[in-house]
Amino acid sequence: MEHFRVVIIGGGPIGIACGLEAKKKGLDYVILEKGPIVNSLFNYPQNMQFFSSSEKLEIDEIPFISKEAKPKRNEALEYYRRIVSSNKLNIRLFEKVEKVEKTNGSFSIATSKQSYTADKVVVATGFYDLPNTLNIPGEDLPKIAHYYNDPHYYAHQKLAVVGASNSAIDAALECWRKGAEVSLIIRGNEVGQRVKYWVRPDIINRIEEGSIKAYYNSVLKEVRPNEIVVDTPEGTITLENDFVLALTGYKPNFDFLTRMGVKLSDDEKKLPQYDPETMETNVSGIYLAGVICGGMETHKWFIENSRIHAKLIIASILKEEEISKT
Ligand SMILES: Cc1cc2nc3c(=O)[nH]c(=O)nc-3n(C[C@H](O)[C@H](O)[C@H](O)COP(=O)(O)OP(=O)(O)OC[C@H]3O[C@@H](n4cnc5c(N)ncnc54)[C@H](O)[C@@H]3O)c2cc1C
């Protein structure tokens, strides 16, 4: 069984930032990632463009050069991969952490490949693995997806997009531009206010000119092989339909956190308990980093504002070790 002072779970941008900081500060560490490097970003839509400008996605001030001010997914893959390679970070890919247990002050970590022990564990597992499901009849049909990749697939098809935030709006626009007949089903009464400022006018104009049909204050009730049922303010309607993209957000794996003893708030936000100065949770020796810190508020933390977690965590670990030596 291998031992590390720090085991970092998740090789997303923030897990990588933690690994880089640990390496710089001479801490023996490993990053365990269940997929490829920055797996979440790898699974983002092919043509996705970040809302952040590239310098705000930089780790440790390593320059991120992109063609436009706001980088595309492929450029981000290139950037984070180069950070891993050129810094020779100790990352193990396609290795899923299945269990973390605390025994006698240290941790045992079981993965899909082997077991480890560690003095400290950093959980940077993000939020992109579990979609918010609709829990409606027909949700298990193959024509409904919670992840969107390439608009080509939907060309000349009747596509319903559920949601009103960035992912849903990007998908609706792209697919319409590739020839899909798009219906947008929006629970509230408007396109999300957080939609990228240069995309929002585009979708509003497409809706106003009738190119994309938006159903506001509406809820998808059922998905059938050739149609969908939607509750609208005018009553329940049935629309012919080939595909549904239910882009209603994602949530962290709370079960994974609670199984290692991390407490969550009792309300619907499910905020994990941690000290914002050190990022240490109620389980001493387990730290949180990145988007997972926001619980169900998955928009609260993102790369731009959670890069700092890496430095806070490693500084806190080093300080604690200093104190225990004296
Ligand atoms: C479409 C879209 C656009 C976005 N645009 C921006 C933007 O412009 N600017 C910005 O700052 N943020 C943006 N975000 C948010 C940003 O991508 C996330 O906040 C960011 O990825 C968080 O990084 P992270 O390392 O905390 O989590 P993630 O990137 O999700 O990484 C978590 C990693 O943990 C791995 N993992 C999970 N469970 C396990 C396990 N049990 N064992 C091993 N590995 C595991 C996952 O495979 C994943 O690679 C966007 C998000 C989306 C969906």
Task: Quickly list its features.
326 residues; alpha/beta; FAD/NAD(P)-binding domain; 2 domains; seven-stranded mixed β-sheet; five-stranded parallel β-sheet; 8 helices; 17 strands; binds flavin-adenine dinucleotide; flavoprotein; oxidoreductase; Ferredoxin-NADP_redctase_2; FAD/NAD-bd_sf
Description of the molecule:
This is Pyridine nucleotide-disulphide oxidoreductase. Pfam families: Pyr_redox_3 (PF13738). Keywords: Flavoprotein, Oxidoreductase. GO terms for molecular function: oxidoreductase activity. The protein has helices spanning 13-24, 39-42, 73-86, 166-177, 200-208, 254-259, 303-306, 308-325; strands at 2-9, 29-32, 91-92, 97-103, 106-111, 115-123, 130-131, 144-145, 158-162, 181-185, 213-215, 219-223, 227-232, 235-240, 243-246, 250-251, 286-288. It is of the alpha/beta class. It has two domains: 2-130 and 250-325, FAD/NAD(P)-binding domain (3-Layer(bba) Sandwich), CATH 3.50.50.60; 133-246, FAD/NAD(P)-binding domain, CATH 3.50.50. Strands 1, 2, 3, 4, 5, 6 and 17 form a seven-stranded mixed β-sheet that branches. Strands 8-15-9-10-11 form a five-stranded parallel β-sheet, with helices on one face. Strands 12-13-14 form a three-stranded antiparallel β-sheet, with no helix packed on it. Helix 1 runs parallel beside helix 8 (308-325). The model has no long low-confidence stretch (mean pLDDT 97). Residues 9-15, 32-35, 38-40, 44, 48, 50-52, 57, 96-97, 124-129, 166-167, 290-291, 302-304 line the site of flavin-adenine dinucleotide.
